[in-house]
Design a protein that fits this description.
The complex is a heterodimer. By secondary structure, chain A is α+β, with helices and mostly antiparallel strands. Helix content of chain A is 38%, strand content 18%. Chain A has three domains: 299 residues, no CATH class; 115 residues, no CATH class; 59 residues, Arc Repressor Mutant, subunit A. The chains are: A alpha+beta, B mainly alpha. Bound molecules: zinc ion.
Chain lengths: 497, 96
Amino acid sequence: MNSERSDPGPYAIVIGLEVHVQLKTASKLFCGCSTQFGAEPNTQTCPVCLGLPGSLPVMNRRAFELALRTAVALQCQIPEYTKWDRKNYFYPDLPKGYQISQFDLPMSHSGWLEIADPKGEFPVRSIRIRRAHLEEDAGKSLHDEASGKADSRIDLNRTGTPLLEIVSEPDLRSPREARAYLNELKLLLEYLEVSDCNMQEGSLRVDANINLHLADAAGGMVATPIVEVKNMNSFRAVERALAYEAERQFAAWRETGRTIAEVPKSTRGWDDQRQATFAQRQKEESSDYRYFPDPDLVPVTVSVSAVDAVRAALGELPAATRQRLESAYRLNAYDADVIVNQGRQFIAYFEQVAQRCGDGKLASNWVTQEVLRILNSAGGTIDRFPISADGLGELIEGVRGGQVPSSRSKELFGAMFSEGLSLAAALRKLGIQALDAGALEQLCRQLLTENPRIVADVKSGKAQAAGALVGLAKKKNANVNPAEVREICARLIAEMP
Amino acid sequence: MALEREDVRRIAELARLELSSDELATLTSELIQIVDYVQQLRSIKTEGVVPLAHALDLANVFRDDCLAPGLPREAALSNAPKHDGAYFLVPAVLGE
Ligand SMILES: [Zn+2]
């Protein structure tokens, strides 16, 4: 199945995403247990998160603040009054028999997130956010995949970890848009420093609702049954699962003609090995959660001035950074997007390089091509990149000013990267010594004296003959700058009687 | 709206209670009485009364994001019907 297909087919795809992000707190949402990932099973629990009788939850202020910061950045409305409810269901990894979540009065609703595709495959779109609410996580179940007969093992370390559930409206129209939305959301969350957004560790999870709108025989519009797709462990997997699911639904509709009116919403998992979705068993009666207000928690009120203060403290968000880079450094939209998508540290690195070397476009070329190429292939992050922003800026500045031969700049970059050398040390190591203007002119004069034929050719109008002088100059000294040789020789020949 | 036997069966299922036919009959009539009793509240006029989400006149009770000691694992597992010293063990649950 090809997820890259751009032909939308004879149907419109309708996608809404539910994203759960773990908020970056030290302790859990309602108790003082650690949220640290990777601890030995069942070593981070207490009576509150185990749901033992007599224990009482108290809300983590930091968790609420991080949730509020995110909601404001997502342009959400923040009601002055919000409360928590119990969502009741039985599952072994939910020790209380209910999850503390938010039902009818979530802490935020009606926001939006703008997504753009700098390659122009879809227009800039504003994706509406239905709501974002603060809730607790459940524990982890480990099933006996092999026989299915042994006991399931339960680890409750994660129980009670603060989650922000961000629900979009079904505004996404292609798997690619869904991925763009996730990229932009993740970038925003990292910008805000509210979550690590690590899908492997489960601190960002995505469920997708998808169906198709198509024309029926009578020319009316019909919709296929809604499917919720789960178990996608990367944004790439989300894109592929949705592309697969759209085609599967289309095939199923052609075969059965069954529509949303006849089939209730179902759940399918994504199998990354087989690159296919598969039907998952429904939890019986699972839709009846019997929400009611949690009497153990008091409501939270948020004043308009508190929201304003949060908004004022947000700082520059990714969309604004893209625009600023475009205008301040004269970058095109594509380059600005590539830089901003790498996150705040990378942006800071680029800006320092650009300021040091005095040329935004050149700085952009170097960081988006050379630096990113290494980061992408070798892994690693910009804060551990061996060439400092000042070092790279100095190299580019040297190339611009002609003190560093541009023909050898990549070589210098390589030496600075692999051996952690300063520019000066790399120049020494590679035996590159910039010639001063006097020495270069001396070299050119000598060349012209030695090659009267070339001089004669140039004088008779064969400008291209001068090209041979550059090669000869390089033989005399590998460090010469070809453009300068050309220029000086042209001047000297012109000055000849 | 009177409760019916089927409603009670469903509620029991949601609560994971397995009821015999006799128990279902008894509980249905008892639940009907309880609901009838609470129904009296319906006679109160509530127009213009703001819904109350909490009985306490309190809001914004927070704790700081500080770690507090939890339970040693042996203690956490000690009430479980079955565990292996590291995990709680429950009858196989498949197809999340
Ligand atoms: Zn706890």
